[in-house]
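User: Predict the complex with PMV.
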Amino acid sequence: MNEFSGSTNFEISDQKVTDSCPSNIALIKYWGKYENQIPANPSISYTLNLCKTNTEMAFFAGEEFSVMTFLGGNEELKFAEKIEKYFKNIREYLPWILQGRYLITTENTFPHSSGIASSASGFGAIAKCLMQLDQTFSGSSNEEEALKKASFLARLGSGSACRSLYDGLVVWGETKEVLASSDLFAIRYPNDEIHPIFKNFNDWVLLIHEGEKSVSSTVGHGLMNTNPYAQRRFQEAHENFLTLKTILKDGDMDAFIKLVEHEALTLHAMMMMSDPAFILMKTGTLAVIDKIWDFRKETDLPLFFTLDAGANVHLLFPANKDEEQIKEFIIKELIQHTQNNGVVKDVMRF
Ligand code: PMV
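Assistant: Here is the predicted structure with PMV placed in the model:
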C-alpha cells in the first residue's frame, strides 16, 4: 500500500475521454534503472510544446477486459498487447481498471518514423485519460493529486514519461538538491529558481535517422547493470544537479551549454562502454556536432545540442534576438545531414 493505492469505493460506467500530453527532452539524463521503474539517478527535462500525443479512450464498463488500439487510423496489435500488460500491472492503483473493454485511438503530432520518443507523450496521455476515468468513477476532484498520480502511473509505463505531465523544467528521481523530488513521480522544478533566459527556448530536432533504433531503451537501461562505469555515472548525475542549480539561478548560459552537451555525450559514451557495446549516433550526428562547435567558436552564439537514445540531434537555442542568425545557420548548414530534410521545430513549454 502507498499513497497511490486506489480506493475500492467506485462506480463504473461507459465513458469516452480525450487528453493530450507533450514529449520531453532530458538535460540530465536517466539511463539505468532498478525494478519497478525506479531510476538509478535523478534526471531533469524540458517539456516540449508541439510534439505531443492526442489520445481518445473509450471504456465499455462491465465487458470482458481487452484493449484495442489505433494509431493514426491503423490498428496496432503490438501496442494493444503492451497496454494490456501495463493495465494489469497498475491494477493495484486503479482497482476498476480490468472491469471493462477499451478502445484507444492515438495520434502523434510528429512523424511516426521520426525517432522522436512517442513513449513519453503516449504513456503520459494514457495516464491522463485513466485519471479522468478514475476521477469520474471515484467522484474525486483534486486536480493536483490527479496530476501527481498520472505522473506516477506514466512512470510505470515508460520511466521518462512521468516528466511529461508537467510544463517547464521537470525533475524525476530523488536528489537532495531538489526539495520533494521522488523516484516515484516527477515534480516541477521551482519556477522562481530559474533565470528568465532559460524559460524561452527553441528545440529543433534534426531527424538524422528515421525508423527503428538498433537497440531499444529497455535493453540499453539493462546494459547499465553490467557497465563498469555505471556507479560513477550515477554519482555524476547527482553532482550535475548541484552544478545545474546554480547555473539555472544565475543564468549562466556558457556553463549550461557545457553541462547539457556533456550529459548528452555521457549518455552515448555509456552505450559505447556497454557489453555488448552499441552506437546509436550516425555519421550525420557527429557532423552536426562538429559544425555546432565551429559555429559557436566563430560567432559566440548560444546554439548547442542534446541527444536522446538515438541518432537525432536536438538543437537548443534561446528564443531571442540571436535566433534568426542561428536558424539561418541550421537551415543552410545542418539540415543537409538529415535523412529526408527532416526537422521538427518545437519550443519549450512553460
Ligand atoms: O523512458 P525510457 O525508458 O524510454 O528512457 C529514456 C532515456 C533517455 O531518453 C535516453 C533519457 C531521458 O532521461 O529521457
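Residues 26, 29-31, 43, 117, 119, 158-160, 217, 221, 267, 308-309 surround PMV (CB under 6 Å).
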